[in-house]
Amino acid sequence: MASLDFEREKTEFRDYYGSNLKLMEDAKGSFISLLNALVARSASIELSKIEGRIKDREECLRKFNRKYRTELEKSESPYEIKNHISDLVGLRIVCLYEDDIENIHKIISQHFLVREVTDKIAAIESTESHFGYKGLHLDVKLGPPRDSAEEYRDYAEIPFEIQIRTIVQDSWSVLDHKIKYKKAIPNNLKRRINTLAALFELADREFKQTVDRYIAE
After folding, report:
1. Spatial distance between the Cα atoms of 16 and 200, rounded to a whole number of angstroms
2. Which of 116, 139, 178, 216 has the most CB atoms at less than 10 Å from its CB?
């Protein structure tokens, strides 16, 4: 039952996580197979890989504490931690070209219930002072008719996140992960990071143009 007792809710979440870990692992495998099959129907999309992970239990608690706890307790809104972690199951689709990201987004929108979209591409391109990895993040759930089909019924209530990136964006995310939790980044280092991010972006575009030119010839 929802409450404002953080220690109690942490215990409840840990129990929930342990009891449902096998179900989440099974759901992850099923979702990966389904996405591979759906994207494979489009001959124009070339994938590098589709992979998945189950979010670490303690990282879930840190995320809740960092993003949601203060506001919920300030407004005296009782909570269950599991209801605020939309990426317990996370999937990553890595494609070759940036043009394919929106095409994959359309496929997912046709076959899943998309609850929220976080467009990191637009967020980064809209400001010169922000750095980070690009990509499209979708919070989704199974929708009809799959949510009632025998093969997927057990996973119908599991929310999951799908990240869509190019190979270059995926590579940049490794570096971004190394720096994003720093409390303070000096200005000179920010400039160097922004320069590096621009080089990754240029590499993404040049890769596509070079391949297109090669195919045309």
Report:
1. 40
2. 139
Q: Residue 88 class from Cβ within 10 Å (0-12 exposed, 13-18 middle, 19+ buried)?
A: buried
Q: Which amino acid is residue 49, in one-letter code?
A: K
Q: Are 148 and 156 in contact (CB under 8 A)?
A: yes
Give the tens place of pLDDT for each residue, 181-202: 555 666 676 666 666 666 766 6
End-to-end Cα spacing for the chain: 64
C-beta atoms surrounding 197 within 10 Å: 19
- Give me the count of residues in the chain: 217
Q: Which amino acid is at 156?
A: A
Radius of gyration of the chain (CA): 19
**Predicted confidence (pLDDT) per residue in 85-142, tens digit:** 999 999 999 998 888 999 999 999 999 999 999 986 544 444 544 444 567 999 999 9
Residue whose structure tokens are 């922000």: 130
Q: Is residue 27 within 8 Å of residue 53, measured between CB atoms?
A: no
Model pLDDT, residue 136: 92
Q: What is the pLDDT of residue 129?
A: 47
Query: Which residue type, as a one-letter code, is found at position 180?
Result: K
Q: How far is CA 173 from the centre of its chain?
A: 12
- Its pTM stands at 0.80
The burial class, CB within 10 Å (0-12 / 13-18 / 19+), for 149 is exposed
